[in-house]
Description:
Low-confidence stretches: none
Number of helices: 3
Number of domains: 1
Structural class: mainly alpha
Mean pLDDT: 88
Helix content: 40-55%
Strand content: under 5%
Amino acid sequence: MNQTKFPAGWDEGRVRELIAELDARTDEEWVAADEAAAAAGEDEVVVAVPAALMPEIRRLLAAYKKPA
């Protein structure tokens, strides 16, 4: 049997509650959440890119060293 491991403080019930909450969101709520997340970080940007570029983008992000 394959057992799922959850992070500390999480269990199957909490995951199901989160999924239900996210599934219940309206499009307007999703947009508001995205806008709030984008506004939270002054030095961050949210951008849509072709899925084919994601492996290279992940490689670049993994190698990035944030300036001190």
